[in-house]
User: Fold this.
Amino acid sequence: MIRPYAVSDLAAIEKAITKSDLGLTPNNDGQQIRLNIPPLTEERRRELTKVVAKRAEEARVAVRNVRRDAIHDLREMQKESMISEDDLHRAQERIQERTDEYIKKVDETAREKDEEIMTL
Assistant:
């Protein structure tokens, strides 16, 4: 049950729930929204693990995009003689280490969430 502080927000909340990939149908009675959440079947659990995998891949891509942008900025700084080539290489190595660290965290979180979803 969702009871917003401002009743005027009910329509926006209902619309957001309907648009989500959760497969839930909100029931709006004018004061609150009720969500009937059925027990998870094996099929639904597998669908949710696919959603987790999709979100994890989106997170990995986002981390790689940040790495790409940071390395691009460093190369621009090196072209403008703001940093030396050695500093560029050291910074690239540190960025790669951080990238690997965060991708590992994303993978761990996705694996833990998959186990949680599949646990009866």
Remarks:
- The chain has a mean pLDDT of 91.
- The domain at 1-37 is CATH 3.30.1360.40 (Gyrase A; domain 2).
- The first strand starts at residue 26 and ends at 28.
